[in-house]
Amino acid sequence: AIRYVAEDGKTVVEKKYREYAQDIRRAVNYYLSTIPDIQGKRVCVWSNNSYHYAVNCYGVMMAGGVIVPMNQRKSWEEMSHELELVEPAAILTDGEDYGNKAQLEAAYGSILRPMDGFRSYEPAAELHPIGHDDLMVLMFTSGTTGLSKGVMMSERNLFSAGHVLWAISAQLADKIDLTKPLPGHYMVLPMFHLGAFIDLFSTTVMGWPLNLGSDIRNFYRDIQKMPSQIMSVVPMIMNALHKDVMRGHRDRLGDLWVPIGSSAMFDPQVLLDMVHNGMFVIQCYGTTETCAAGIINFAQDE
């Protein structure tokens, strides 16, 4: 189900669906046991792409809580603003100091929890999902134009966008001569990005192996160790891939040939260059703005 590179930087760890599902059920039991009446309560999680991140996000949701992905690299002013709005019942951290550790511990020390707290719990026998129109995810904007804004999404909101990815996978199967290996997926984006967050929950549901990268600085290492054909990208990542392709360094990208984007900020010429050099670009802008409609634009149409 999931692959990632261990802390030694060398070993690729593989988690099978059986273990993944059991760990999610452990997380459900953990939250039901430690947060009284968790239904509707908010649990913040620092947004590093990790196995524990995926388990906790599913665990909170399936216990009936609200997951709040947060960017740990924001300033304390920005972070405290978001936490005050959220009023969290718990904050999950990986123990690393991203520049705000002292302030965080002083203000919220009593509700800080390790990311792997679920491990000592037995798998829950029953799940307690929220309703289709109840709050499921609270996600903040980047804050580049001022203080960040909270975006509230129900299960229906989130998985309507998920259906877009399922439609894309069907079109890939129906319209492309798949001479290259599929399925396969690689994600390097921080999980506070909606497109990446949707990918986290859609890819494994569709049966695609999900490769997790936690740090963009390790991108080339990880994509060589975990060969991936498909990748969710933002403009910064697309531009980096574009430079590799145009400079004749496509071999650095391994098997990657299907970048998927959901941003209006992509440069059409960059997309066209990628297509002319053998990439199949899927530009599905509309997943966040019109997720019920699910607009899909293929950049192969000049």
Quick structural summary:
By secondary structure, this protein is α/β, with parallel strands linked by helices. It has nine helices and 14 strands. An eight-stranded mixed sheet has the order 2-1-10-9-11-12-13-14, sandwiched between helices. Strands 4-3-5-6 form a four-stranded parallel sheet, with helices on both faces. A two-stranded antiparallel sheet has the order 7-8.
Please provide a written account of the structure:
There is one protein chain. The protein is an alpha/beta fold and about 300 residues long. The strands form 3 sheets. Strands 2-1-10-9-11-12-13-14 form an 8-stranded mixed sheet, with helices on both faces. A 4-stranded parallel sheet has the order 4-3-5-6, with helices on both faces. A two-stranded antiparallel ribbon has the order 7-8. Helices cover about 35% and strands about 20% of the residues. The two termini are about 35 Å apart. It contains 9 helices and 14 strands. The radius of gyration is 19 Å and the shape is globular. Mean pLDDT is about 85; it is low at about 285-300. α1 (about 15-35) crosses α2 and α5 crosses α6. α4 (about 100-110) links the parallel β5 (about 90-95) and β6 (about 110-115).
Label the structural class. alpha/beta
Main-sheet strand order equals 2-1-10-9-11-12-13-14
The percent range for helix content is 25-40%
Distance between the termini: 36 Å
Shape descriptor reads globular
Can you count the beta strands? 14
Strand fraction: 15-25%
Number of helices: 9
